[in-house]
Amino acid sequence: MLKHFLWFSRHPADEREAAILSVAYQRALTATWAGLVAFLFLVSRFSVGFRSVALAHAVLFLEVVLVASVVAGWTAVRREQLEFKPAVHEGRLAFWKLALVWLIVTFAGMIPVWLSPRLEYAAIFCVFVAFVASATAWAWNWTRSYTFHGRMLATVLLPFQTIGFLLEPKARLARRLLLSAILTIGAVGVPLALWVPVIRLVAEPSGFSGPVVPGLVTPGDATGGPFHHDVLDYRLLGGLHEGDIVMFGTRKPFADDTDYGVIVRADDRTVTVDIQDAFGQSTDGAYPDVITIVNQHHTKDVPRSLVFAKVIIDPPMSGWPFRQ
């Protein structure tokens, strides 16, 4: 059904195939230009609905344009008998070396988290970049016998899937697609599994919205403040000091006696924490135009043994996974 769907990735075997592929490239280019013109119109001032198009929607639209160009070219070759030049896979970089690079990068990323939990988001970002960069390098090496156009699409957009697809180049298509899916899932799942002990024992990415502790509110914002990305430092590095935000109680998800607090005094056995009770706005029916800011909190003495994490507010690069 999708015969020659990846027509752009192979070199023609003779002049006849070169002429057919030339028509396919012309149709693909026409579809690309038409899609880009439509995209520029949608984001222009002449289009009210898409004037403030989100980045995620823009990327999705461009991806649709790319697929449309491939389909347009495919209409020129789907009924043709094409042999293409044989793809050569000898002399490529070994896959086990790539797996070794990923393993080393995964464990290397844990070191800065162990030394300074506030670097957790930055470490995760660096591991992600290293994975993508190494996968791109391997995919570029493995696609040497394919066209430059095909190599760019494969290595820039789908490096993990390309490596999985070419892992066993002589296998059946169904098996190659399965290997591509397995490698894509494994490249994410295996490092994540290796990081679980670090996340659960050393530091854990977390977050909260609003005035979790007194004073943690954007000035002038009576609705609760912005979302805060944080890291929970379970080793309490540097000790507990006045001004530190801590979590105390039972270290279990959704536990009723787990709470946040900001330390106002600390000694060897006990810390006194300021705990937020209520924050928001209220109005009186008799004076509907008067808005009262409710900000109630109290202090509490907590044994040090019940303090299980320091909360590091807005660590470096904490917002990168959540950007629109």
How would you portray this structure in words?
This protein has helices at 15-42, 55-74, 95-108, 110-115, 120-142, 148-157, 159-165, 173-201, and strands at 203-209, 227-233, 245-248, 259-266, 270-284, 287-303, 307-313. It is 42% helix and 20% strand. The model has no long low-confidence stretch (mean pLDDT 85). It is α+β, with helices and mostly antiparallel strands and 324 residues long. Strand 5 and strand 6 (287-303) form a beta hairpin. The longest helix has 29 residues, at 173-201. The protein is built from 8 helices and 7 strands. Helix 1 packs antiparallel against helix 2 and helix 7 (159-165) crosses helix 8 (173-201). Strands 1-2-7-3-4-5-6 form a 7-stranded antiparallel sheet.
How is the topology of this model organized?
Elements (H helix, E strand, L loop, with lengths): L14 H28 L12 H20 L20 H14 L1 H6 L4 H23 L5 H10 L1 H7 L7 H29 L1 E7 L17 E7 L11 E4 L10 E8 L3 E15 L2 E17 L3 E7 L11
Antiparallel strand pairs: 1-2, 2-7, 3-4, 3-7, 4-5, 5-6
Helix pairs in contact: 1-2, 3-5, 3-8, 5-6, 5-7, 6-7, 7-8
